[in-house]
Amino acid sequence: MQIEFTKYQGLGNDFILVDNRGQAEPRLTPQQAEQVCDHHFGIGADGVIFLLPGESGADYTMRIYNSDGSEPEMCGNGIRCLARFIADLEGKSTAEGQTYTIHTLAGLITPEVQPDGQIRVNMGAPRLLAQEIPTTLAAPDEKVVNVPLEIAGQAWAVTCVSMGNPHCITFVEDVAAIALEQIGPLFEHHAAFPQRTNTEFIEVVRPDYLKMRVWERGAGITLACGTGACASLVAGVLTGHCANAATVELPGGPLYIEWSALDQAVFMTGPAQKVFTGVVEF
Questions:
Q1: Which pLDDT score is estimated for 97?
Q2: Which residues of 125-137 are buried (b: 16+ CB within 10 A; e: fewer)?
Q3: Does 100 share its domain with 204?
Q4: How confident is residue 86, by pLDDT bands cut at 50, 70 and 90?
C-alpha cells in the first residue's frame, strides 16, 4: 500500500498530512502512524493528521494520531497546518482568505487562512470544571485554579484548563531552568489525570508576553503546542498573571492568543508552512 502525504510544520510542531477525503476512517492504523512518525526509521513527525469528509454539517473532519499512536481530541498547531493543507489542495491563494469549519473530537473548530498567510483559529470556549478536563484535583463541578500538586517531592501550584484536550499549567520564575524531560512524564501520567495531561510551564515576562515550554501528552517535548498556548493564556487570566490577549513565545516561535470577553471564545493566530511531499509504502 502506498500513501501520499505532505509534511507541514507550525512553529516547529511537525505533522504528516494525509488526504483522506475518500473514506470516513483514517487510512493508517495507530501503529502505522507511530512508525512513520519515527525520526530514525520513518518520515519523522509529532503526529499524523487525516483530512476526512465533513460530519454534522462541517466542511471537513480532522483526525490525528500522536507519535506514540494515541489519538488526541484536537491539536492547535495541527489544525493550522490542516487549514493550509486544505487551501493547497483546493488551489486557493492565501491572498483570498479562506474560512473552513472542521469537525474534531473536541467539537467544531473554525480556522481562517488570512491574506497575510497567518492562520487565525476560533478554538471555542475553554472548559474549566474539573470533570470537563478531567482531573480529580477538585470536586467535579469546581474549577482547578492554583491548586497544589506534588510532583517529584515538590508542590506545584497548578491551574487546569481543557481546550477539548486536558492541560495542566504552572507558572515558574525561569522556564528555561525546568528539567522538562524528567518532570514532564510525571505530570502527564499523574493519577490526578485519568486521561493523562499536557503540561505547560509558563514564565510571565509581561502581562501581554508569556514564555512557554510544553510536555505534550503522547508526543513529549515539542517546539510548540497551540491548544497549550490557549490554555496557558486562560490560566494566566484566571490567576491574575496576564491580560486577555498576549503573545505566547514557544521554542518554535510566537503565537498570538486572545480570550474574548464577549463570547468566551479563544482565538489563536500563527503560521503553518509546507515542508515537503512524498509517498510512503507499507
A1: 81
A2: ebbbbbebbbbeb
A3: no
A4: very high
Based on the domain organization, do 260 and 275 belong to the same domain? no
For the annotated catalytic residues, the residue numbers are: 75, 225
pTM above 0.85, yes or no: yes
Domain hosting 83: range is: 2-120+271-281
Q: pLDDT-based confidence at 228, cuts 50/70/90?
A: very high
Residue 125 falls inside a structural domain: no
140 Cβ partners below 8 Å, 6+ apart?
Answer: 129, 130, 131
Cα angle: 67, vertex 71, 76; to 5 degrees: 80
Close Cβ partners of 154 (under 8 Å, ≥ 6 residues apart): none
SS (H, E, C) the chain: CEEEEEEEEECCEEEEEEECCCCCCCCCCHHHHHHHHCCCCCCCCCEEEEEEECCCCCCEEEEEEECCCCCCCCCHHHHHHHHHHHHHHCCCCHHHCEECCEEECCEEEEEEECCCCCEEEECCCCECEHHHCCCCCCCCCCECCCEEEEECCEEEEEEEEECCCEEEEEECCCHHHCCHHHHHHHHHCCCCCCCCCEEEEEEEEECCEEEEEEEECCCEECCCCHHHHHHHHHHHHHCCCCCCEEEEEECCEEEEEEECCCCCCEEEEECCEEEEEEEEEC
